[in-house]
């Protein structure tokens, strides 16, 4: 890149967020990593911000800190999320609400308060959604509901911000071997799960694409993990 560009990524403490942050740093971005626990990346172009995206006041404070470094965000990656697996009748109201609050309301807070940092005809909003946003799957009703809602919000905002030339790309992967699946006790054989490298190939393609190209829906999964 010819000039310094800034990328904001949520959920960078581990997993996909961590990998995407390291990749964008290698691409020459200044990366703002947002997480609840902090991110163990030692790079002069990495800005580590601890923030609970569920809390709107915390997000507003986060943007104040970002404003000390830049008034432009060339990329926003909505990655933070939670996943828990249980039959609907065994899912507590708190668990269901937590999915909506983190996976949807958190992204809403990030987008709502990003407007002053949008670069017309350039800002790229990349959303890490899920195959579960296209097809409801057994025992993940809370997660699936949150991802369906997230996609709907992004589609609506794509129309609202069309006049700004903001581009939106939404990634909908199948199961990936990251800590979020292990923590969710997902009963899925490893040979039916994509690796992080598989996801990163798609992410690299999307982020390296020309400014006039966007990917409204990219569904991808392991060839053995076909969802019927």
UniProtKB/TrEMBL annotation:
GO MF annotation terms: oxidoreductase activity
Gene3D superfamilies linked to this entry: NAD(P)-binding Rossmann-like Domain (3.40.50.720)
Q: Which GO terms describe its cellular component?
A: membrane
Query: What Pfam families does the record point to?
Result: adh_short
For this UniProt record, the keywords arranged alphabetically read as follows: Oxidoreductase
Highest taxon in the source lineage: Bacteria
Annotated signal peptide: none
> Which PANTHER family does the annotation name?
DEHYDROGENASE/REDUCTASE SDR FAMILY MEMBER 7B, DEHYDROGENASE_REDUCTASE SDR FAMILY MEMBER 7B
Q: Which family does it belong to?
A: Belongs to the short-chain dehydrogenases/reductases (SDR) family.
**What is the name of this protein?**
Uncharacterized protein
């Amino acid at each position: 890149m010819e000039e310094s560009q800034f990328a904001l990524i949520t959920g960078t403490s581990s997993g996909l967020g961590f990998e995407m942050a390291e990749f964008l740093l290698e691409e020459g971005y200044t990366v703002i990593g947002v997480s609840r626990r902090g991110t163990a990346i030692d790079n002069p172009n990495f800005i580590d911000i601890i923030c609970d995206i569920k809390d709107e006041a915390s997000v507003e404070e986060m943007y104040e800190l970002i404003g000390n470094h830049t008034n432009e965000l060339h990329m926003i990656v909505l990655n933070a999320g939670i996943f828990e697996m249980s039959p609907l009748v065994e899912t507590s109201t708190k668990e269901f609400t937590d999915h909506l609050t983190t996976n949807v309301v958190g992204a809403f807070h990030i987008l709502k308060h990003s407007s002053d940092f949008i670069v017309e005809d350039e800002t790229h909003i990349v959303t890490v959604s899920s195959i579960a946003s296209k097809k409801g799957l057994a025992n993940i009703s809370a997660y699936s509901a949150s991802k369906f809602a997230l996609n709907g919000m992004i589609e609506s905002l794509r129309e609202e911000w069309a006049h700004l030339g903001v581009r939106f790309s939404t990634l909908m992967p199948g199961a990936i071997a990251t800590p979020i699946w292990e923590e969710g006790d997902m009963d899925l054989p490893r040979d039916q799960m994509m690796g992080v490298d598989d996801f990163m190939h798609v992410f690299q393609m999307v982020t390296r694409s020309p400014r006039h190209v966007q990917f409204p829906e990219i569904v991808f999964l392991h060839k053995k993990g076909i969802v019927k």
